[in-house]
């Protein structure tokens, strides 16, 4: 599936990003605690439903960062691209460097009931702007589906699976954020665009 959006879907993403951004600011989500309330999105998302990852055009061959996880899993972040629509798309490759198949932890989905209803995903990922003390959660559509790769239950030994996650964009002056994904080490990444 293509990462390109129709004009109507792009307007929906802008409205959703504004709603989520306001919710993040009003809720004062900062401090990095696990008990922080998470914002609810209130606008429609793209028609693709956030279920498939595709390599982004112009994606760099060198990863921005590499995170180690359990069972030989490695997440290589290939790009973190700011879009004019007001969101950031993180494209990554999840690789199993282990000698046996790795079953993905349900913790990757996060602990929000709304997202958990939609099955295994990367909905637990966050971007943290430590200077502004703000945390950005994975965007979701009006049905609560996270705008991230969904349905990946396991990764076979030696296999690589492309994944993506979309977040509301931090302010234009913010170019570095901490990327966090449950069960993986945190890492600082640079946002381009």
Automatic annotation (TrEMBL):
Superkingdom in the source lineage: Bacteria
Biased composition (Polar residues): 49-62
Residue numbers spanned by region Disordered: 30-66
Protein name: Secreted protein
Source species: Streptomyces cinerochromogenes
């Amino acid at each position: 599936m293509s990462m390109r959006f129709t004009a109507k879907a792009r307007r929906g993403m802008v409205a959703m990003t504004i709603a989520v951004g306001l919710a993040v600011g009003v809720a004062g989500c900062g401090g990095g605690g696990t008990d922080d309330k998470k914002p609810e999105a209130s606008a429609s998302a793209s028609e693709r439903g956030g279920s498939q990852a595709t390599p982004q055009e112009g994606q760099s061959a060198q990863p921005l960062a590499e995170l180690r996880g359990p069972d030989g899993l490695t997440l290589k972040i290939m790009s973190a691209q700011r879009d004019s629509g007001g969101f950031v798309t993180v494209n990554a490759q999840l690789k199993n460097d282990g000698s046996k198949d790795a079953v993905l932890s349900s913790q990757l989905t996060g602990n929000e009931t709304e997202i958990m209803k939609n099955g295994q995903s990367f909905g637990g990922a966050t971007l943290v702007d430590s200077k502004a003390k703000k945390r950005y959660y994975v965007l979701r559509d009006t049905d609560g589906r996270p705008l991230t790769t969904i349905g990946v239950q396991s990764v076979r030994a030696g296999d690589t699976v492309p994944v993506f996650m979309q977040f509301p964009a931090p302010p234009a002056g913010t170019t570095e954020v901490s990327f966090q994904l449950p069960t993986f080490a945190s890492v600082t990444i640079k946002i381009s665009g």
